[in-house]
Design the sequence.
């Protein structure tokens, strides 16, 4: 079991209840869609996963360790198991494609040799060979998101969290990005993707967790298991 | 920490300083002015203390003795005074010696004071020095009540005023130093805050990717130290130049006991450089704690 949420609630200081008593388990190697309208609690869920926010109530475990009770000094190590992909890519404009990817490894203190070895690998994996020395501003949206994914993969995380990764992209480009994410998942990385793009989800035949007003209103896997019984 | 990280930290702080170069320069200039005034205040306080302690050590008690006192009684009186707490030295000055001193002080050899006056109007006296000048009034009181003492002089008003002046010089000096240090910290932290702001996306990413706290902080600390230290270096250079030209004149014209001990001055200058660095570190620490929590 990679991730466990136990009765997690998130109430912001302004009184907004973003998540209400959520319990959820995610296995290694799963591909999960996190669905819901804006304001349903997807972003809060994602932020709790990489501990940008702490839950107001409940417990969250990653690899059987509570990330709620974790010491501040242990957080960086925990985050190295997670790759994050953003809707707005969050690339550093003054760095080239290769430098953006290398940046992720530099900041965790990876040795130069492994950076030189790993960066071309992930750039190839996301299909951006030949663009190593291009700056993000010269790339299309889909290409920029590929850089974002390459950067998230650089440190070989156990889990990839994608927050609306196709939110700024057209349908064809979105499908290409989805193919890339499936491919990453096939190689063993758990992928959690928050989205409200119904079309992408329907054709995927993956586990779908539906959020509404901070509660889980449906979980395709749970329904499947119930049908089995 | 390996060499590449160190290179990364330095290049990041350099880039940030260069990107905000106008503010960086303004901050350095401001820090330099702060440290300059700080250093001037320190030198002023040090010199005032030196002058005052010089004057203080001149303060002595003069106890005049009854005319009828025999030599034996005088010796007894001397041993009694010696036993008083805080007395450092006691010197017997005969009235003949006293007249001679007076003659030297005022007339030189032109007039013979003794023959002018006829009879020596002076009394035998003791010149007493205290271990601590602050004890002078108490010691004087204790001597006054002894038998055989005619009168005690110790420059009452002068000494009290002197201590008041010393006290105020020290209080004002310290207050000024705190005020200026506060100003310098504020300026540096503004610059660092701007640096954090212009790199907030990078910092956010670094944190999410799993960079350790110190890795994120290091470039900012280097930047803060650089700003503080560069300002301090400029200030110390100006101060050293100004002070050395000033001491030359003060020494020859005013005969003031100005501090010129090179090693002591070097200590002050080193202290000012360290102070500049410390200001940078403190300012960075505060702004990071406030604006760098992810």
Sequence:
């Amino acid at each position: 079991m990679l991730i466990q949420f136990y009765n997690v609630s998130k109430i912001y200081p302004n009184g907004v209840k973003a998540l209400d008593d959520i319990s959820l388990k995610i296995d290694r190697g799963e591909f999960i869609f996190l669905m819901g309208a804006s304001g349903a609690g997807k972003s809060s869920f994602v932020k709790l996963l990489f501990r940008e926010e702490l839950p107001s109530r409940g417990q969250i475990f990653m690899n059987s360790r509570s990330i709620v009770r974790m010491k501040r000094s242990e957080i960086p190590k925990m985050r190295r198991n997670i790759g994050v992909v953003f809707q707005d890519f969050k690339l550093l404009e003054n760095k080239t494609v290769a430098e953006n990817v290398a940046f992720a490894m530099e900041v965790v203190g990876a040795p130069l040799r492994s950076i030189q070895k790993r960066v071309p690998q992930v750039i190839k994996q996301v299909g951006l060979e030949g663009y190593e020395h291009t700056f993000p501003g010269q790339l299309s949206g889909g290409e920029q998101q590929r850089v974002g994914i390459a950067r998230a993969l650089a440190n070989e995380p156990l889990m990839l969290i994608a927050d609306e990764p196709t939110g700024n992209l057209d349908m064809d480009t979105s499908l290409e990005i989805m193919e890339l994410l499936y491919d990453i998942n096939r190689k063993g990385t758990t992928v959690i993707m928050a989205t409200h793009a119904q079309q992408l989800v329907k054709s995927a035949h993956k586990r779908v967790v539906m959020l509404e007003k901070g509660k889980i209103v449906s979980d395709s896997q749970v329904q499947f298991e119930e049908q089995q019984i | 920490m390996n060499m590449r990280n160190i290179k990364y930290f330095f290049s990041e702080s350099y880039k940030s300083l260069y990107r905000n170069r106008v503010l960086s320069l303004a901050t350095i200039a401001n820090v330099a002015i702060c440290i300059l005034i700080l250093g001037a205040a320190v030198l002023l306080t040090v010199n005032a203390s030196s002058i005052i302690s010089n004057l203080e050590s001149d303060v002595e008690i003069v106890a005049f003795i009854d005319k009828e006192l025999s030599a034996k009684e005088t010796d007894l009186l001397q041993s009694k005074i010696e036993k008083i707490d805080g007395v450092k030295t006691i010197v017997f000055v005969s009235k003949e010696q006293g007249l001679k001193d007076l003659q030297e002080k005022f007339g030189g050899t032109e007039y013979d004071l003794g023959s002018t006056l006829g009879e020596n109007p002076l009394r035998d006296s003791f010149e007493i020095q205290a271990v601590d000048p602050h004890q002078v009034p108490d010691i004087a009181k204790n001597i006054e009540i002894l038998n055989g003492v005619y009168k005690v002089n110790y420059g009452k008003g002068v000494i009290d005023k002197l201590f008041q002046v010393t006290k105020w010089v020290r209080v004002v000096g310290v207050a000024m130093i705190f005020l200026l240090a506060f100003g310098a910290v504020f300026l540096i932290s503004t610059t660092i805050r701007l640096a954090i702001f212009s790199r907030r996306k990078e910092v956010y990413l670094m944190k999410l990717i799993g960079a350790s706290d110190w890795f994120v902080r290091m470039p900012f600390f280097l930047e803060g130290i650089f700003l503080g230290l560069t300002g301090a270096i400029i200030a110390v250079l100006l101060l050293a130049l100004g002070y050395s030209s000033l001491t030359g004149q003060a020494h020859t014209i005013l005969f003031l006991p100005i501090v010129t001990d090179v090693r002591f001055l070097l200590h002050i200058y080193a202290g000012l450089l360290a102070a500049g660095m410390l200001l940078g570190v403190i300012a960075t620490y505060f702004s990071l704690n406030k604006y760098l929590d992810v």
Summary: Chain A touches chain B at residues 50, 52, 72-73, 76-80, 82, 84, 90, 92, 103-104, 106-109, 111-112, 155 (CB under 8 Å).
